[in-house]
Design brief:
flat; 16% strand; alpha+beta; 2 strands
């Protein structure tokens, strides 16, 4: 799983997308109401995904 927050900095989102593209077996998740600290911004959603 590769995750990032919708409100993370653009460079972090770009890197997450590149990482996902380079790992065919990966799953990318964008947490809609989160910034860089996904587990702190949306803890319940993060735990459900994990």
């Amino acid at each position: 799983m590769i995750g990032c927050g919708k409100y993370d900095i653009p460079m972090a989102i770009k890197v997450a997308k590149m990482w996902h593209e380079s790992e065919p077996e990966s799953k990318m998740i964008v947490f809609e109401n989160a910034g860089h600290l996904v587990n702190m911004d949306t803890p319940q959603e993060f735990l459900e995904v994990i």
